[in-house]
Amino acid sequence: MLTKSPTSLKITLRQLAIGRDYELEAALALEYRLTQHVMAAHDFYEGVRAMLIDRDQKPHWRPATLAEVSEGMIDAYFAPIGNRELRFP
User: Where are the alpha helices (H) located in the chain, listed in sequence order?
Assistant: First the structure.
């Protein structure tokens, strides 16, 4: 696990903790919100580059360590995305 994105690891840990009691629609809305934030950040594309494009298996994560990933940084991934939120009829 230590070869994976430190940011993604912390996002996943928080998502598991807060989402365990969510109803399906709330869980899907949270998943969607997270995908939107992750796709706007660096590490997703860096992982694709390292695994699929260059195939060097050497991603350069930003930040590079778990210790460098602050709670405030993780909070930003859980922030609302305004009118792009997933809504169910």
Answer: 6-19, 24-39, 43-48, 71-77
